[in-house]
Amino acid sequence: MANIIVFAILAAVILCAAIFSVMTKSIMRSITALLFVLFAIAGLYFLLDYTFIGTAQLSIYAGGITMIYIFAIQLISKRRLQGIKEKIDWKRMTIAGLVALTGCLTVIIAQLRTAFFDKFCSVPDVEIPMERIGETLMGSEKYQYVLPFEFISLFLLACIIGGLVVSRNQKEDK
Question: Would you tell me which of 20, 35, 45, 103 could form a disulfide with 54, CB atoms 3.0–4.6 Å apart?
Protein backbone atom coordinates (compact mmCIF):
# COMPACT_ATOMS: atom_id res chain seq x y z
CA MET A 1 0.00 0.00 0.00
CA ALA A 2 2.88 2.36 0.77
CA ASN A 3 4.28 1.80 -2.72
CA ILE A 4 1.01 2.91 -4.27
CA ILE A 5 0.94 6.07 -2.12
CA VAL A 6 4.55 6.95 -3.04
CA PHE A 7 3.73 6.22 -6.69
CA ALA A 8 0.71 8.54 -6.53
CA ILE A 9 2.82 11.32 -4.98
CA LEU A 10 5.55 10.92 -7.62
CA ALA A 11 2.95 10.81 -10.40
CA ALA A 12 1.36 14.02 -9.10
CA VAL A 13 4.76 15.72 -8.96
CA ILE A 14 5.53 14.58 -12.51
CA LEU A 15 2.18 15.79 -13.87
CA CYS A 16 2.24 19.16 -12.08
CA ALA A 17 5.85 19.91 -12.95
CA ALA A 18 5.38 18.83 -16.57
CA ILE A 19 2.32 21.05 -16.98
CA PHE A 20 4.15 23.96 -15.35
CA SER A 21 7.16 23.36 -17.59
CA VAL A 22 5.01 23.64 -20.68
CA MET A 23 2.81 26.52 -19.50
CA THR A 24 5.42 29.00 -18.24
CA LYS A 25 7.10 31.51 -20.53
CA SER A 26 10.28 31.80 -18.48
CA ILE A 27 12.94 29.42 -19.73
CA MET A 28 14.58 29.17 -16.32
CA ARG A 29 11.30 28.21 -14.62
CA SER A 30 10.59 25.72 -17.38
CA ILE A 31 13.99 24.06 -16.98
CA THR A 32 13.60 23.95 -13.20
CA ALA A 33 10.20 22.27 -13.55
CA LEU A 34 11.75 19.81 -16.00
CA LEU A 35 14.40 19.05 -13.38
CA PHE A 36 11.64 18.14 -10.90
CA VAL A 37 10.08 15.84 -13.52
CA LEU A 38 13.37 14.05 -14.09
CA PHE A 39 14.03 13.64 -10.36
CA ALA A 40 10.53 12.22 -9.84
CA ILE A 41 11.06 9.76 -12.70
CA ALA A 42 14.26 8.65 -11.00
CA GLY A 43 12.16 8.21 -7.86
CA LEU A 44 9.88 5.86 -9.80
CA TYR A 45 12.90 3.79 -10.79
CA PHE A 46 14.03 3.61 -7.17
CA LEU A 47 10.49 2.63 -6.17
CA LEU A 48 10.74 -0.31 -8.59
CA ASP A 49 14.13 -1.24 -7.07
CA TYR A 50 15.98 -0.46 -10.29
CA THR A 51 18.75 1.38 -8.53
CA PHE A 52 21.13 1.30 -11.49
CA ILE A 53 18.64 2.90 -13.87
CA GLY A 54 17.57 5.41 -11.19
CA THR A 55 21.18 6.39 -10.56
CA ALA A 56 21.83 6.69 -14.29
CA GLN A 57 18.72 8.87 -14.60
CA LEU A 58 19.98 11.17 -11.87
CA SER A 59 23.55 11.43 -13.11
CA ILE A 60 22.79 11.76 -16.81
CA TYR A 61 19.85 14.11 -16.57
CA ALA A 62 21.29 16.21 -13.76
CA GLY A 63 24.26 16.86 -16.06
CA GLY A 64 21.92 17.45 -18.98
CA ILE A 65 19.87 19.99 -17.05
CA THR A 66 23.07 21.77 -16.04
CA MET A 67 24.00 22.03 -19.72
CA ILE A 68 20.55 23.39 -20.56
CA TYR A 69 21.02 26.06 -17.88
CA ILE A 70 24.35 27.02 -19.40
CA PHE A 71 22.90 27.24 -22.92
CA ALA A 72 19.89 29.21 -21.64
CA ILE A 73 22.10 31.74 -19.92
CA GLN A 74 24.36 32.05 -22.95
CA LEU A 75 21.60 32.30 -25.55
CA ILE A 76 19.24 34.70 -23.79
CA SER A 77 20.12 38.16 -22.61
CA LYS A 78 19.97 39.06 -18.92
CA ARG A 79 17.27 41.66 -19.55
CA ARG A 80 14.96 39.01 -20.95
CA LEU A 81 15.60 36.55 -18.11
CA GLN A 82 14.84 39.01 -15.32
CA GLY A 83 11.75 40.98 -16.28
CA ILE A 84 9.28 38.54 -17.76
CA LYS A 85 5.68 39.00 -16.71
CA GLU A 86 3.42 36.15 -17.65
CA LYS A 87 -0.12 36.65 -18.89
CA ILE A 88 -2.49 33.74 -18.56
CA ASP A 89 -4.97 33.15 -21.37
CA TRP A 90 -7.81 31.59 -19.39
CA LYS A 91 -9.82 30.63 -22.48
CA ARG A 92 -6.98 28.57 -23.97
CA MET A 93 -6.12 27.11 -20.58
CA THR A 94 -9.74 26.02 -20.03
CA ILE A 95 -9.93 24.37 -23.45
CA ALA A 96 -6.59 22.62 -22.89
CA GLY A 97 -7.71 21.47 -19.45
CA LEU A 98 -10.94 20.03 -20.85
CA VAL A 99 -9.07 18.20 -23.59
CA ALA A 100 -6.58 16.81 -21.05
CA LEU A 101 -9.39 15.79 -18.68
CA THR A 102 -11.21 14.03 -21.52
CA GLY A 103 -8.03 12.16 -22.41
CA CYS A 104 -7.41 11.16 -18.77
CA LEU A 105 -10.97 9.94 -18.35
CA THR A 106 -10.72 7.92 -21.57
CA VAL A 107 -7.54 6.22 -20.36
CA ILE A 108 -8.97 5.51 -16.90
CA ILE A 109 -12.17 4.04 -18.33
CA ALA A 110 -10.17 1.87 -20.74
CA GLN A 111 -7.98 0.64 -17.87
CA LEU A 112 -10.96 -0.14 -15.68
CA ARG A 113 -12.58 -2.15 -18.47
CA THR A 114 -9.43 -4.23 -19.04
CA ALA A 115 -8.73 -4.89 -15.33
CA PHE A 116 -5.41 -3.06 -15.52
CA PHE A 117 -5.49 -2.09 -11.86
CA ASP A 118 -5.99 -5.72 -10.77
CA LYS A 119 -2.82 -6.69 -12.63
CA PHE A 120 -0.98 -3.64 -11.26
CA CYS A 121 -1.76 -4.45 -7.63
CA SER A 122 -0.83 -8.14 -7.94
CA VAL A 123 2.70 -7.79 -9.35
CA PRO A 124 4.77 -10.85 -8.43
CA ASP A 125 7.89 -10.23 -6.38
CA VAL A 126 10.39 -11.39 -9.01
CA GLU A 127 13.72 -9.70 -9.48
CA ILE A 128 14.89 -9.21 -13.04
CA PRO A 129 18.63 -9.84 -13.44
CA MET A 130 20.82 -6.93 -14.52
CA GLU A 131 22.08 -8.94 -17.54
CA ARG A 132 18.56 -9.06 -18.94
CA ILE A 133 18.10 -5.31 -18.45
CA GLY A 134 21.43 -4.64 -20.19
CA GLU A 135 20.56 -6.94 -23.09
CA THR A 136 17.18 -5.24 -23.47
CA LEU A 137 18.66 -1.73 -23.41
CA MET A 138 21.56 -2.43 -25.75
CA GLY A 139 20.23 -5.24 -27.93
CA SER A 140 19.26 -4.83 -31.57
CA GLU A 141 16.52 -7.45 -31.78
CA LYS A 142 12.76 -6.97 -31.49
CA TYR A 143 11.70 -5.04 -28.33
CA GLN A 144 15.26 -3.91 -27.64
CA TYR A 145 16.41 -0.31 -27.54
CA VAL A 146 19.80 0.29 -29.15
CA LEU A 147 18.29 1.94 -32.25
CA PRO A 148 16.21 4.50 -30.28
CA PHE A 149 19.32 5.30 -28.20
CA GLU A 150 21.26 6.01 -31.40
CA PHE A 151 18.49 8.25 -32.76
CA ILE A 152 18.32 10.16 -29.47
CA SER A 153 22.10 10.67 -29.45
CA LEU A 154 22.00 12.05 -33.00
CA PHE A 155 19.09 14.32 -32.08
CA LEU A 156 20.92 15.67 -29.01
CA LEU A 157 24.04 16.26 -31.10
CA ALA A 158 21.96 18.22 -33.62
CA CYS A 159 20.47 20.29 -30.76
CA ILE A 160 23.92 21.13 -29.40
CA ILE A 161 25.18 22.13 -32.84
CA GLY A 162 22.05 24.23 -33.41
CA GLY A 163 22.56 25.98 -30.07
CA LEU A 164 26.15 26.75 -30.96
CA VAL A 165 25.14 28.12 -34.38
CA VAL A 166 22.46 30.35 -32.84
CA SER A 167 24.92 31.53 -30.21
CA ARG A 168 27.56 32.30 -32.82
CA ASN A 169 25.08 34.22 -35.01
CA GLN A 170 24.00 36.40 -32.07
CA LYS A 171 27.63 37.28 -31.28
CA GLU A 172 28.32 38.21 -34.93
CA ASP A 173 25.22 40.46 -35.06
CA LYS A 174 26.54 42.55 -32.14
Answer: 45
Q: How many other CB atoms are there within 10 angstroms of residue 74's CB atom?
A: 13
Residues 112-137: tens digit of each pLDDT: 887 766 666 666 677 778 888 888 88
